[in-house]
């Protein structure tokens, strides 16, 4: 088959992109390398013969088969992506809120910036808006820091120092629970204590590199940066956090020998780590996928660390709106003062929303609106009934239309003796036992039409019996 570069796109890459896979997916590295090489070597026209085809898909055959057989968690990704675009545009109209201005590095952002990226547990990706602009994680780093701590030192050890209960107070309150521990890891006091638990015997640089390594793995090696200017500003304006630090020290909240100032410094550094919507959604997807990064397949966090993290995000992740968010949206999420909302739809996908204007309690106005709209359209709320509640869409299922279309196509191929179409259906996991309105299978139709060329087509059905009342003993 001769394909000009544009044909290569329409013939191979476009169908691939429609499944939600991106050509930058690390799992497709070999496939893309071979394709690029073939393009370079042929001046203009690429001949995709059997040899080149095998070479390109060979290393990725499992992934590509899964993609084209629509075996990913969102089988009809094209429709899903267009629904997400609609949510994106309707949310864009939400105005109001104020961009945080306590440091110039946050105040500089335009209130019009708005981006959403998602990555499913199978690594299907979609983005809309300003999804390549770096911003600081700020408080969105708290669940990630906590997950790393539990993964490294265990639940029991971490919770010797931090509680698990929502505080009902502002995130930067000088307040401890009845046992004189910070209320939970999602408030500043909790995150500051946890930063003293990570790599206690290493120097500052090692500790920073160590967390960055984890974050890069969660992001599938996509963009994770650091804003030194934000870090310096956070330190200079961090009187409240210093006050929390001294209070924690007075109440003996840190492990013995811990250096409170070093813990604070580390906390400011963590808040200043940068991502984009695109890389941030892969981090969220790693949490959605039980700790395994969907696009690299690497286990980054233990299942226990992820479960703990999602539980605490669910109850404490959205500042003083956490209870209402759990009620209305019913999904684990964490927001930050930069306007980021890291949202996890467990076992389905991770989402990163980003838009700087914040509401009264500090959540991104567009971020919150988008999350609410998302669960009004799809049955993603933790307590949505998946069996009897038909009003919402379930993107995990192929629509009835798609299933009907596949029966009709199957019957027509059988009727007209189109053996290569039948073979294609069999290879792409179409259910060859599918029946029409008269309970006739493709086998029945193919046999009833009786041309000799159907013989090899009939072989594709040879393992099934036709139960149609119109069938006379096949
Ligand atoms: N750096 C901020 C602080 O510690 C984080 C604020 C936030 O995102 O909640 O106060």
UniProtKB/TrEMBL annotation:
UniProt keyword annotations, A-Z: ANK repeat, Hydrolase, Repeat
InterPro entries given in the database record: Ankyrin_rpt-contain_sf (IPR036770), Beta-lactam/transpept-like (IPR012338), Glutaminase (IPR015868), Glutaminase_EF-hand (IPR041541)
Enzyme Commission (EC) number: 3.5.1.2
GO terms under biological process: glutamate biosynthetic process; L-glutamine catabolic process
Top-level enzyme category: hydrolase
Keyword Transmembrane helix in record: no
GO molecular function: glutaminase activity
Chain ranges of the Glutaminase EF-hand domain: 12-75
Gene3D superfamilies linked: 1.10.238.210, Ankyrin repeat-containing domain, DD-peptidase/beta-lactamase superfamily
Catalytic activity: L-glutamine + H2O = L-glutamate + NH4(+)
Family the UniProt entry places it in: Belongs to the glutaminase family.
The protein, known as: glutaminase
